[in-house]
Specification:
Largest sheet: 5 strands, parallel
Low-confidence stretches: 258-262
Strand content: 5-15%
Number of helices: 9
Strand order of the largest sheet: 2-3-1-4-5
Structural class: alpha/beta
Radius of gyration: 20 Å
């Protein structure tokens, strides 16, 4: 495949850590945890990946390269190297003295294959949250820049299905670590150790205190991530269970049991 057997790139001055996940799945919390590590700087939802991908496709069309992508071809390799350099130049603006910069743009799941091609050495983590909780959180959040489909529970469920279909495809092609939001907030120490290991980072006690990160937060999770890691959001959707039957159906989950009556 395109992800195996390609000649290596020269070392980059900064290596991204790609955090994939649906909105409201815990990606901001994961970024704040990693940002407490001395080797990591937060990049937020950087758009450089999408810009580099668009320019790569335009350059590829001009070159007349055939499909599928073959990194062993000299011209293909040159275009991928150009995209890598373009991304690294932008990432360096966030890096400071850090070796890594996080990138948690939600659209990165769409181009994860391209990102893997230009940064084969970059850790890539997919954050997963319980389906009902994730979809309900999206529905109740104010996401002005998000897709219009986020205003319908059924459409959010379809979006989730498409997202996970795509992630399963990428997972079948290359290494993609998975991190459970519920496990993270229930046993932070164990999950953070696994997260750092997946990112090939040594242990740092500071990662247990993401609320102490000084960088501003610009996502809908601003209030949650300024507090110590907690489980308050895990079951928040449960109080609305009687009204979420259509969401359960759209997610393919069994109907909730009716409460016992005396």
């Amino acid at each position: 495949t395109a992800f195996a057997g390609a000649p290596p790139f020269p070392d980059a001055d900064v290596v991204p850590i790609f955090i994939l996940g649906m909105p409201r799945s815990g990606t901001t919390l994961v970024e704040r945890i990693l940002a407490r590590h001395p080797r990591v700087a937060p990049g937020g939802e950087m758009t450089v990946g999408q810009a580099a991908h668009a320019e790569y496709l335009r350059a590829r069309a001009r070159s007349g390269l055939p499909w599928p992508v073959d990194p062993a071809l000299p011209e293909e390799r040159r275009l991928l190297a150009d995209a890598r350099e373009r991304y690294a130049e932008q990432a360096l603006r966030h890096a400071g003295d850090a070796r890594h910069v996080t990138d948690k743009h939600p659209a990165n799941a769409l181009i994860a294959g391209f990102l893997r091609l230009i940064f084969p050495e970059a850790p890539m983590v997919h954050v997963v949250r319980e389906p009902m909780a994730a979809c309900w959180s999206i529905f109740t959040a104010f996401l002005p820049a998000a897709s219009a489909c986020f205003t319908s529970l059924e459409d959010i469920a379809r979006y989730r299905a498409a997202h996970f279909d795509l992630v399963r495809l990428w997972s079948s092609r290359f290494d993609l670590a998975e991190l459970s939001y519920e496990a993270l907030v229930t046993d932070p120490a164990a999950s953070i150790r696994s997260l750092l290991a997946a990112c090939r980072l040594p242990w740092s006690q500071a990662c247990l205190r993401p609320e102490e990160a000084a960088e501003p937060v610009t996502t809908a999770s601003v209030d949650q991530v300024r507090s110590p890691i907690h489980r308050d959001s895990v079951d928040r959707h449960a109080r609305y269970a009687p009204y979420l039957g259509t969401l359960r159906l759209a997610l393919g989950l069994p109907a909730a049991e009716a409460p016992a009556t005396k």
